[in-house]
Amino acid sequence: MADYDAQPDRCASPQPELSSTQLEADDSDLHAGLIGLAGIVAGGRGVRELLGDVADFAVQAIPAVKGAGVTLLDSPGDVTQPEAWAATAQFVRDIDVVQYELFKEGPCITCMQTGRPTVSGSLGGDSRWPHFAGRVARMGVHSVVSFPLLIDGQVIGAINAYAYERDAFGEHAVQLGSQFAGPAAVSVFNAKLLADARGRAENLQRAMSSRTVIDQAIGIMRSRSGASAEEAFDRLTHISQAENVKLRVVAERLVAEAVNRARARRRVPGAATAEGR
Predict the structure, then answer these.
(1) Which of 153, 175, 198 is the endpoint of a domain?
(2) Strand 154-163 with 67-74, pairing
(3) What order do you get walking across the sheet with 81-87 strand by strand?
(4) Does the reported pTM lie above 0.85?
(5) Is 1 a domain residue?
(6) Could you say which DSSP state residue 157 is in?
(7) Shared-domain flag, residues 148 and 230
(8) Per-residue pLDDT reduced to its tens digit, 137-191
């Protein structure tokens, strides 16, 4: 039996027993979704594009889903905020706005708090989210199942699946979705880890480039004025503060001006000799 949090006080009609053909088809769809997850390779693609693939595979793997999204937890300071990273349909994006920005309540937030799948079969009558549920039901979406993404017991996000019909997600769908959510959490974690590493590498590269151009600017100022390295750096800093621009920008401008002057001297015969007199 699948372990999940169902809608309280909701007595859904018993779902018909699935035929062996339907069970095989659902297992095949789940397998295809898992194969898709295993084949996700970052390469030069961005993390949002990768998570978009995860959402697409969720639609394939979980029965009755009409749209799905991937949400990650972002932790600025001590406050943890959910952020929608991918969605397979516009109505899912609209629901994300209602849940995370407008009312700050809903099945995704609940499942990330409890670490358990959360199901609702008739959102309009779900008392757990009095503001969110009624708004989404008026959008024509009545069923939702949210699966927490867990890494070493820690929730890093969730997969949210929606359907227009009531009671679309029974125990069978929750079981298949839970089997998908485990490997999906690993794929999502690795994609985010890679994106963070790439961002750090790019920041380091920019820092190294900034240091190089600043050193060049210091050298130019020293050659012109005979100032020490510390004095030249102080002058660059003063210009940066006075003009309210980054130190790197001031240095790039100084280096560019020096290069342009050197090129101009080469174009004028005798200019270098005359300047040196």
Answers:
(1) 198
(2) antiparallel
(3) 81-87, 67-74, 154-163, 143-151, 118-120
(4) no
(5) no
(6) E
(7) no
(8) 999 999 999 999 999 999 999 999 999 999 999 999 999 999 999 999 998 888 7
- 153 three-state secondary structure: coil
CA–CA dist 191, 40 (Å, integer): 9
Whether 215 and 136 map to the same domain: the answer is no
Comparing CA positions, the residue from 179, 178, 12, 41 lying closest to residue 111 is 178
- Residue 117: domain span: 20-198
Last residue of a domain, one of 198, 230, 247: 198
Q: Please identify which residue in the block is written with the tokens 């969110």.
A: 132
CA 139 to CA 137: how far, in whole Å? 5
Answer whether 180's CB lies under 8 Å from 56's CB.
no
Q: What would the pLDDT profile of 238-256 be if each residue is shown by its tens digit?
A: 888 888 888 888 888 888 8
Considering only residues 66 and 213, tell me which one the structure prediction assigns the higher pLDDT: 66
CA proximity to 179, closest of 34, 18, 80: 34
